[in-house]
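Troubleshooting entry. The earlier prediction with zinc ion gave an output that would not parse, so I re-checked the input for stray whitespace and re-submitted. Clean input:
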Amino acid sequence: MYRQIVILTGAGISAESGLRTFRDQDGLWEEHKIEDVATPEGYARDPELVDRFYNTRWSQLHGGDVEPNQGHNALVRLEREFDGELLIVTQNIDDLHERAGSHRLLHMHGELSKGRCPRSRQTFLLKDPFGPEHTCTCCIPAQRLRPHVVWFGEMPIGLDRIQHALDTCDLFIAIGTSGTVYPAAGFVDTANHHGAQTVEVNLVEADRHSQFQYHLQGKASDIVPRLVDQILSGNVIKDNIG
Ligand SMILES: [Zn+2]
């Protein structure tokens, strides 16, 4: 039925695995100033503070009690069993999609598990938390790695590839995204413009709710497995997926 699917995932799917989100009530942005920990200027002022902030996130992610949930797992099943094209675009910087087993994945806001050379932009997998001892191997002298995270005022990663996928997809699904952060919030408009079916999975009504043709309200871990069943069985998605 569908040939090309683009799936956008956001904080909601990670929150169900127990990770703290940035934007919700009690979110991380209530405790930290965005300009201090999530801007290039903040990092230039105090790199140690920024490293500590992401280290806390890193430790939570690797603390042993955070695992992919049924929502992540269902997307792996889709990747394995779906015959057409699939691209998962995530706004999340955690590695829960990878841990579940997803490969056709693009981290548009970067990855907590990687550091990046500020000069060459080469990325390096981090086995332990951030610190000044993490330097690149691509430059002489070696450069201190910065978090491989897209900060406010920086360009998201892979926009050309995402745009191309949206231009040609016939199904666009947004899972657990607030719909407030551009350019991701505008992906649904692009997909609609190109005639794709657009489906939203969210615990609450998101800001860009009205842009989606279909709305499935509930937990990603509950709805996404059923959604994947529908797609794999060749059915068209409707408001009620049983
Ligand atoms: Zn380098």
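This one parsed fine. The chain has a mean pLDDT of 90.
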